[in-house]
Amino acid sequence: MTIPLEQHNSDPLLRNDEAAKYLKVSPGTLRLSRHTGELFKDVSTPAYIKLGRAIRYRKSTLDNWLVALPEFQSTAEYQSGK
After folding, report:
1. Of 27, 30, 39, 80, which is the most exposed, with the fewest CB atoms less than 10 Å away?
2. Shortest CA distance to 18 belongs to which of 55, 66, 51?
3. What domain range is 21 assigned to?
């Protein structure tokens, strides 16, 4: 499948360190999440792409992953949702 150049440029592939910076987590935390399947307790890791030995994250995938996370008004609301 060929992706048009303009689409590729608008949805860049981020390296682990770039994705971690974008998500505001450490690169080690993001790397570990690929092994455990969870970035945080009860929060699955975002999908990634393997290009040989290289790991890449589509920016659009990270954006969609962030949008899908639940939002809470208070800690009490978070704790009652469990």
Report:
1. 80
2. 55
3. 5-80
Q: What tokens does 10 get?
A: 């608008």
> CA–CA separation, 9 vs 78, rounded Å?
37
pLDDT of residue 22: 97
User: Number of structural domains, the chain?
Assistant: 1
pLDDT means over runs of 10, the chain (82 residues): 59 97 97 94 93 96 94 79 58
Tokens read off for 40: 């945080």
Beta strands 43-44; 38-40: pairing state = antiparallel
Instruction: Match 């992953």 to its residue by tokens.
Output: 65
DSSP-assigned letters across all residues of 23-63: HTS-HHHHHHHHHHSEEETTEEPPP-EEETTEEEEEHHHHH
Pairing of strands 49-51, 54-58: antiparallel
